[in-house]
Write a structure and sequence with these properties.
alpha+beta, Beta Polymerase, domain 2, seven-stranded mixed beta sheet, 7 strands, CorA_TM1_TM2, transport, cobalt ion transmembrane transporter activity, transmembrane, transmembrane helix
Length: 338
């Protein structure tokens, strides 16, 4: 029988990757078995080394390891099974606990393709855990594997936030290009299939904005009273990252408002076309009314039908109906022009 892999790209403890960072040096990979020794090493503490451990919550061993081996705060442990909701950023027992959101790594952007990452940041340790791969987290790992050095856990967090801002900016660029195409077709009065697409795009952007918008606010609130172990340089990095993220959120809000205006313009055009169609139908009905009325009266085959004995009765009646129809058409189109 073929065995089934239930590790989901992680080891037996749910660790997907682990890195040890040293000042001015590229990160070194580290396993879960080396974590306890590092945290107990006083020399590593004096040298300002720190670890980044990233776990997969799809592996059942991850949560057991996090609860048993790392002594993490309750706020972080409670966030591991939380559903996608609002962003959180708080201090618990001197450590920074964050719940952030991002677009999934292996999909195109969609309203439902948003995942959550839980973070716990301490002076010597960064722990992140997620259920599914997220785009900004994978980009940060690529930078670490490429040799980028980080002097502190807070600088790592700031780079992650910049990655989030870049992912959001990329989504906005693609969405803006699509909105530009729709707007060009709107100016050319081609509105066949754009309303449904605009609605889906607006819902996606609004949901993403709702999830990510609290993040810069939470960061700024934290930066007003940072923990003692965060130095000024780290505070400056976090503030810059928060400002970049806030700019992306503002651009998202502007794009949502632009989509809303285009939807309103499309609705106005549709209403105008509907009104024009109803007007034509009404005019046709009014023009056909005399013919239908006279045909109904003359088709009753009762005595006293006008012109029944006249040699030119049919021609006279047709002439009267044509004249009446022309007069009604003139009145209808004259009112429309007026």
């Amino acid at each position: 029988m073929r065995s089934i892999d239930t590790s989901y790209g992680s080891d037996k403890d749910g660790l997907i990757w682990g890195y040890r960072f040293s000042p001015e040096r590229a990160a070194e990979p580290i396993g879960a078995d080396d974590v306890a020794a590092f945290l107990a090493d006083d020399e590593a503490s004096a040298s300002h080394d720190f670890l980044w451990l990233h776990f997969s919550l799809s592996n059942q061993g991850a949560e057991r390891f996090l609860r048993r081996s790392l002594g993490l705060p309750d706020a972080f442990l409670e966030s591991l099974r939380s559903e996608v909701g609002s962003t959180r950023l708080e201090l618990d027992d001197g450590r920074l606990v964050a719940v952030i959101h991002d677009v999934l790594f292996d999909t195109t952007f969609d309203a439902s393709e948003v995942g959550t990452t839980s973070l716990c940041i301490a002076p010597r340790l960064v722990v992140s855990a997620r259920l599914r791969p997220l785009r900004s987290m994978e980009q940060l790992r690529t930078a670490v594997r490429g040799g980028q050095a980080f002097r502190s856990p807070v600088e790592l967090l700031a780079d992650l936030l910049r990655g989030q801002a870049n992912v959001l900016a990329d989504i906005l660029r693609k969405s803006t290009a699509r909105v530009d195409e729709i707007e060009d077709r709107l100016l050319a009065n081609r509105i066949s299939t754009d309303r449904k697409e605009l609605g889906a795009l607006r819902r996606s952007l609004v949901r993403l904005q709702r999830l990510l918008a609290p993040e810069p606010t939470a960061l700024f609130r934290l930066l007003n009273r940072p923990p003692a172990w965060i130095d000024r340089e780290d505070v400056a990095d976090l503030r810059q990252a928060a400002e970049e993220f806030a700019t992306s959120i503002g651009d998202s809000a502007a794009l949502v408002e632009r989509v809303k205006l285009i939807q309103e313009e499309l609705a106005a055009l549709v209403n105008e076309q509907t009104g024009r169609t109803l007007f034509v139908l009404t005019v046709v009905t009014v023009l056909a009314l005399p013919v239908n009325l006279v045909a109904g009266l003359f088709g009753m085959n009762v005595g006293g039908v006008p012109f029944s004995g006249h040699a030119h009765g049919f021609a006279i009646l047709v002439s009267l109906l044509v004249t009446l129809t022309v007069v009604l058409a003139y009145l209808a189109f004259w009112r429309k022009r007026d």
